[in-house]
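Design a sequence for this backbone.
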């Protein structure tokens, strides 16, 4: 075996964002691009004698990148790599394998919900031994390393056969090729009442699960159809494809339109769900009713005790700052702690590790619990199924009862995509400068009670994260939040988060866009969106 040390030079821009390093696929396939970043990971976390998990969402370049990473792991002295068959692992399944096998972390190849293909997106991220995304201090160190790198190590060897489950080796490093689904499915079986869900399906309950030609297909078929007895064909778009069949695997009403149409059409199934490229996001829909992710988090928190894995109650609930406050109301009623963190799953890790929170969620179709350290799309779907099986009500009935009890947080997110970066930065800069003067102003008939740029002090390790989103709060409890996306690969995406609370009993059945209209106008005006960006309407509304 020969270890080659290859001379290289820093490549600009290898800075991990909200969730790892994401670039256009041709950029990642460029000369030394993947190699520089992977070497920087190993230089920061150390590889000698260690065990890592490796897998990805199966998008274009996934298979070849996996071979490069294996060769580099071997050259850097790793003892063992556990890799999903075919280099496939959903993000939550990878997180579980990292924890289950008490490994030293894992490398996940994914650009999540971004499209895949030769001209689309690719990504690489490192997860820590707790199974969660590397915290900012670690990703910063990796980025710094990419700016100083002079060489990387790689073994000269043929590709490892990843098509068959079993143990093999690469230049002295053990390579364990594992079934990507088995351990994850067993974990789910331990958390949920599969018997009750099976009985519900046997009783004629119908579901549609849209995996959007991405990684959850095999997981969904095995769990929903094979183990829970859902009718064959319940899972659609269930074969992962390198280009996701041309789909944009982002489970929201815009991109999962076929599912929405079916759920709002004649003869709709009882329950619908979709998941994203790497399986950590979810959207759930009832017959004729859409469940916003913020509401989903609140309903799951209020009902989690109905599932065996959470029968003893929750320790706390955490949500990202732009997520609606619906979950806070549940936490208050349950007498448990609630936490408000910056955007990005990595901020939940400490709360989960410290046992302060059991369930976490983001408005961006992410929900999860302390069973892994990533958000988990199928987990959320299964918890909903467990709740439906126990309560024996429709999704619409469960939501109506929830709002009657807690009030309703009308909520929407408006995304303005592919804005020129300088224009977006100028807009945010002007808004930040205007913040001190906003308090007390009356806009659209609503008095501004406060405005700030969200900063977070982690209650566990004391680390501070600043500039996490501008928020403007109104006296009536309404608010809007603006921040720029940290996961895009082209220009800037402005995210505008809008929220308004209705206590009930009246006014709980409005169309969210109508209920939010004054907040939307206030946000567009105060941030001077049209003036800076030329945009008068969002590209995506969720
Ligand atoms: C987006 C979501 C965020 C999520 C992240 C990774 O990040 O808004 O909630 O954690 O993707 O899935 P953003 O593009 O807003 O930085
Ligand atoms: Zn994802």
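Sequence:
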């Amino acid at each position: 075996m020969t270890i080659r040390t290859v001379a290289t030079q820093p490549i600009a821009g290898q800075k991990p964002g909200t969730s790892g390093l994401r670039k256009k696929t041709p950029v990642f396939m460029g000369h030394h691009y993947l190699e520089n970043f992977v070497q920087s990971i190993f230089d920061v976390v150390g590889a000698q004698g260690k065990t890592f998990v490796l897998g990805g969402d199966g998008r274009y370049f996934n298979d070849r990148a996996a071979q490069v990473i294996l060769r580099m792991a071997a050259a850097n002295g790793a003892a063992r790599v556990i890799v999903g068959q075919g280099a496939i692992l959903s993000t939550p399944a990878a997180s579980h394998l990292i924890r289950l096998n008490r490994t030293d972390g894992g490398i996940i190849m994914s650009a999540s919900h971004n499209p895949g293909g030769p001209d689309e997106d690719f990504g690489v991220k490192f997860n820590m031994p707790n199974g969660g995304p590397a915290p900012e201090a670690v990703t910063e160190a990796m980025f710094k390393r990419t700016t100083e790198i002079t060489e990387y190590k790689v073994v000269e060897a043929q590709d490892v056969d990843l098509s068959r489950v079993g143990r093999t080796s690469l230049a002295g490093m053990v390579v364990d090729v594992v079934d990507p689904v088995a351990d994850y499915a067993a974990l789910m079986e331990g958390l949920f009442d599969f018997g009750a869900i099976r009985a519900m399906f046997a009783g004629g309950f119908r579901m549609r699960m849209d995996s959007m030609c991405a990684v959850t297909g095999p997981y969904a078929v095995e769990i929903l159809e094979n183990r829970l007895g859902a009718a064959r064909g319940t899972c659609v778009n269930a074969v992962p494809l390198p280009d996701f069949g041309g789909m944009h695997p982002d489970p929201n009403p815009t991109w999962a339109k076929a599912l929405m149409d079916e759920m709002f059409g004649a003869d709709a199934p009882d329950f619908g769900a979709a998941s994203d490229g790497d399986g950590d996001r979810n959207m759930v829909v009832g017959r004729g009713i859409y469940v916003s992710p913020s509401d989903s988090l609140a309903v799951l928190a209020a009902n989690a005790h109905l599932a065996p894995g959470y029968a003893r109650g929750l320790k706390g609930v955490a949500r990202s700052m732009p997520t609606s406050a619906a979950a806070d109301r549940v936490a208050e009623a349950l007498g448990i702690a609630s936490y408000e963190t910056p955007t990005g799953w990595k901020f939940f890790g400490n709360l989960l590790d410290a046992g302060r929170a059991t369930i976490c969620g983001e408005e961006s179709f992410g929900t999860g619990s302390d069973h892994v350290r990533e958000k988990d799309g199928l987990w959320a779907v299964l918890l909903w199924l467990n709740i439906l099986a126990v309560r024996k009500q429709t999704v619409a009935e469960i939501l109506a009862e929830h709002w009657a009890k807690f009030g309703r947080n009308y909520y929407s997110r408006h995304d303005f995509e592919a804005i020129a970066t300088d224009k977006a930065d100028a807009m945010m800069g002007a808004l930040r400068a205007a913040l001190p003067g906003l308090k007390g102003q009356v806009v659209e008939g609503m008095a501004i009670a406060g405005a700030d740029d969200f900063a977070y002090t982690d209650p566990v390790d004391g680390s501070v994260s600043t500039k996490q989103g501008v928020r403007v709060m109104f006296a009536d409890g309404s608010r809007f939040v603006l921040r720029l996306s940290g996961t895009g690969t082209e220009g800037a995406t402005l995210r505008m988060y809008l929220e308004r609370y209705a206590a009930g009993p009246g006014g709980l059945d409005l169309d969210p866009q109508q209920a939010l209209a004054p907040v939307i106008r206030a946000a567009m005006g105060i941030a001077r969106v049209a003036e800076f960006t030329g945009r008068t309407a969002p590209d995506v509304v969720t």
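The chain has three domains: 2-178, 184-406, 408-541.
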